[in-house]
Amino acid sequence: MDKSLKIICGDCLEVLRTIESESVDLVVTDPPYNLSKNYGNNRDTWAHDDYLEFSRRWLTEVKRVLKPTGTIYLFMGVRYISYVYEILERELGMFFNSWITWCYTQGIGKTKGFSPRHDDILMFTKNEDYKFNLDAVRVPQKYYRSVNNMRGANPGNVWEFSHIHYCQTNRQNHPTQKPEALFERMILASSDKNDLVLDPFCGSGTSLRVCQQTSRQGIGIEINEEYVAMIVERLDRPFSGFDSVDERMERIPNDLNNEALRDEYITNHIEWFLKNHPASINKFTEAIEDKRYGKFIQLRLDL
Ligand SMILES: C[S@@+](CC[C@H](N)C(=O)[O-])C[C@H]1O[C@@H](n2cnc3c(N)ncnc32)[C@H](O)[C@@H]1O
Description:
Number of domains: 2
CATH class of the largest domain: Alpha Beta
Number of strands: 8
CATH architecture of the largest domain: 3-Layer(aba) Sandwich
Radius of gyration: 21 Å
Number of helices: 9
Distance between the termini: 51 Å
CATH topology of the largest domain: Rossmann fold
Low-confidence stretches: 298-303
CATH superfamily of the largest domain: Vaccinia Virus protein VP39
Strand order of the largest sheet: 1-8-7-2-3-5-4-6
Bound molecules: S-adenosylmethionine
């Protein structure tokens, strides 16, 4: 396996203690939400106060290992998110940056009340000064306007990605596998190449797979040894693109009528937005054709 990636099988509370203080650039993690999920050798069922104490203990360790410019992204379900927010801000003195809503398009249907369609991610930084690479995560503009930045717009704090469905080829035998594109955005925004990224609840290894393909170093901790074996196998597979994409990445701005600009834009689009998403290149090409931009290019090439 790639030497820059490390998977440790164990309880993150114990393993985190072995990691040097201020050595990690970014933490991206998706802990159990205390919803009684069955994770094989562990079940996500805690008394309310015990769950908060567990969260407090691992988050304290995370803060210790983060570098002063470091960031944590933490997935959390609605029931506990306000408590965890309190722990991060009031008890640990970290800095709130963003509350990101991951909106998934399909899920269970409720017959009384509204069907849930989102999970949330808290982004906190260790200090007021922190790393953030906006250019690495911009999304294509909807319209061309000369005042717009053609490198793209800020993706905002509502992220729409579908779940990884059971029929998808990258689907792992894990009950709460997350889409790779979610981790891609967090990792590209808040770390640089060769930085060290930590995931104390690694699950099926989504975070490490993204680290591998974006040239980050990674440490993943997972308590279930069967999942650890799954991660090793996942990291050894050939890469053919991340398993999910923000559909806005496949569009080309409307009204991009200036030929020279359009040419420059089309040349850059894949490098800017679709580097890790080869399967989307066809859709981008179709978008060019739909807007009849292709015809313009064809005409020009014919001259
Ligand atoms: C929500 S899942 C993570 C899913 C992951 N993001 C993915 O995309 O596959 C949480 C994981 O934390 C693991 N876990 C639970 N308690 C743990 C602990 N104390 N230390 C390390 N891992 C733990 C579970 O076995 C489970 O795989």
